[in-house]
Amino acid sequence: MTAVLVINSGSSSFKYQLIEMDAETTLARGLVERIGADESHVTHEVVSQNGSEEYEQARSIRNHTEGFAVMLDAFREHGPSLDEHAPVAVGHRVVHGGKRFFEPTIITDLVRINIEDLAEIAPLHNPANVQGIEAAQKSFPDIPHVAVFDTAFHQTLPPAAYTYAIDKDVAEKHRIRKYGFHGTSHKFVSEEAARFLERDIADLNQIVLHLGNGASMTAVRGGESVETSMGFTPLEGLVMGTRSGDIDPAVLVHLHHKANLSVDELDDLLNRQSGIYGLSGLKDMRDLTDEANEGNDTARAALDVYVHRLKQYLGGYFFQLGRVDVIAFTAGIGENSAQVRAEALAGLENFGVKVDAARNEQRSHDTRVISADDSDVTVLVVPTNEELEIARQTLSVV
Ligand code: ADP
């Protein structure tokens, strides 16, 4: 049996998952959160065929290294045994690979320094990823560690798609361009769609909508990302849980001059006080649709903005691709909200998109078709699995 440990590290938390790669099944997953706070919180879930068991504990964890020691204790105490299921490698989710990294990469000292160097353009994410890498390397010193980059799948964007129309010397000096994110998910979902339809991915034009708290859309031609909605950072594009997505950049200048907002306040406004939360006071799409359906006008208006932006991008990607074979919905909202899917695709019959209402309403954890049999475009719901994709890519290089 071959197992891979997948780590997704944030600044005060990390998620882990142990995956058995022959059958591609999860053996255990967990979350260590509030690292550095007085009371940190650990959840360890042991997954088996008969269901899963979850163990929780609260204790003080000062840093990521201590967090990994606690994770190892949880494996020892609750299983599965890491002697029996010894990972052959550790796969790390790394948010920003810049222009340098476009493939899963074995982490050497030099690679780690380069990932750290990219903190200049990904200050929120890359330093936290490096903390996780360093701590994991201490806990697992004898096996390879591999970085899998969120930006990597978008390395195929053509220059016309990734170039912002600003002074090109300024752009070059500061590495300003569209990078795109959620790449691991867009890659997994577009490949899963082709596999599910028993089609060669090279023949398919797809639009993938990853709608979670963060949200992005990607146009995928023949398995390659050719346009994507997130940009230099994960702020651009669609309306998200707390992020604005697209906005006239001059609004920032205006708010700076007229409302005296500092750079940090503007950053907070756009990343944490905007999106459906800024519009409605609600962060969760379930609450937003419930409220909207109960006649709350503010919630309805926020949902309208959300859906309007989805349509705007869908239309753009139709024209960029010229022909669309598949539209695939994924992530928390894409997989679970029949209402958002129905509203996003309403009225597109003239473009060959016809959703079957009953299929769309059916709940399932499996990949499924929700379009009508006579729809030119096949509409799918594809549950994403970023951890499995990271594990696959990790295994591919060790
Ligand atoms: P993250 O970006 O944090 O990984 P997820 O992919 O888990 O996010 O998606 C979280 C979003 O999914 C939340 O807005 C949540 O409201 C939404 N969601 C989850 N289940 C449902 C559901 N049944 N109906 C509507 N939205 C849902």
Automatic annotation (TrEMBL):
This is Acetate kinase. It catalyses: acetate + ATP = acetyl phosphate + ADP. The gene is ackA. Homodimer. Transmembrane segments: none annotated. It comes from Paramicrobacterium agarici. Pathway: Metabolic intermediate biosynthesis; acetyl-CoA biosynthesis; acetyl-CoA from acetate: step 1/2. Belongs to the acetokinase family. Mg(2+). Can also accept Mn(2+). GO terms for molecular function: acetate kinase activity; ATP binding; magnesium ion binding. Substrate binds at residue 93. InterPro entries: Ac/propionate_kinase, Aliphatic_acid_kin_short-chain, Aliphatic_acid_kinase_CS, ATPase_NBD. It is found in: Cytoplasm. It comes from the Bacteria. NCBIfam families: ackA (TIGR00016). Its cofactor is Mg(2+); Mn(2+). The active site is at 150 (proton donor/acceptor). GO terms for cellular component: cytoplasm. The record marks 182, 243 as: Transition state stabilizer. The keyword rRNA-binding does not apply. Its EC number is 2.7.2.1.
